[in-house]
Amino acid sequence: MKKKEELNITNELIEAVKSQKTFSEIGINEQLVKAVSELGYTHATEIQERSIPVLISGTKDFIGLAQTGTGKTAAFGLPLLQLIDTESPVVQAVILVPTRELGQQIFRNLEDFSKHIPNISIAATSGGIPIKPQIERLTNSTHIVVATPDGKWAPKSSVVDQANKIAKKSGGKIEVITDPKAAAQDASVIYTDVWMSMGDSEADRAEKTSALSSFAVTNDLMRLTTKDSIFMHCLPAHRGEEVAADVIDGPKSVVWRQAFHRRTTIQALLYHLTRGDLKGNK
Q1: Cis ω on the peptide bond leading into residue 236 (within 30° of 0)?
Q2: Is 60 exceeded by the pLDDT of residue 15?
């Protein structure tokens, strides 16, 4: 009787495996399939089979519930990795977890899953360990293009050289060009400032305005940027000069959020300075 029961259980398990779909069948690409197969997995669990096709579509919010050990990390991690654009330097996904241990576990899983995806970057940050190496890990290479008129209004070459030395440490690059359209092409962020700064001579206004007029940030310029690009300005701004009103007040503008974060930073500095907590570099 016992042998018959064991045989029935074995048959049920075989049939259950047969009914499971492979990762390829639910839309996972070859690179990820190769990685998970090397980890010993060929067929998707129920939570993976139900969630992965929905998440790959990238069009719906999704809540998945399953027991421990059913492969939930792969259920969201595989489609997440598949949707990453490795050509884009911006952060494309953030995973929040309740404990450092779980965070490290998910980080290791994602690294295993993505071993055959070139140029992908995954980082784990958490409390309880030194913050400096975590910040350094998050310092990705950045390409900054400065569009400016040639001649007297261009930045000093010594300043550009010093900036490039700093950028080089993280694999970044700073380029100075005279074509605003070329600078805006496929840019993720457009940042500008007022044309007349405090201390500038009013005698220079007409000449400076004439030289900078083609560098105004307009909707036509923003259309050259990436789909999810943002516009930034340190304020105060002059609508109709360095930026068009429909840009600074438009959907891509984050100037007020930017100002809010700057305010809270200043408040924090003032708080610690008045308490004597900050001692400079000593």
Answers
A1: yes
A2: no
- Sorted by sequence, the CB contacts under 8 Å of residue 126 that are 6+ apart come out as 100, 103, 104, 134
Burial profile 122-136: b = 16 or more Cβ within 10 angstroms, e = fewer: bebeeeeeeeeeeee
Q: What is the CA radius of gyration of the chain?
A: 26
pTM score of the predicted model: 0.52
Stretch 156-162: mean pLDDT: 88
| pLDDT computed for residue 125 by the predictor | 78
Q: At residue 50, what are phi and psi to the nearest 5 degrees? A: -85, -30
The contacts of residue 119 (CB under 8 Å, 6+ apart) are 86
5 vs 244, residue with greater confidence: 244
What is the separation of C-alpha 245 from the centre of its chain, rounded to a whole number of angstroms?
A: 27
Phi, psi (degrees; rounded to nearest 5) at 213: -55, -35
37-57 residue pLDDT tens:
999 998 999 999 999 999 998
8 Å CB contact between 139 and 132:
no
CB 111 within 8 A of CB 133: no
3-state helix, strand, coil in the chain (%, to 5): 45, 10, 45
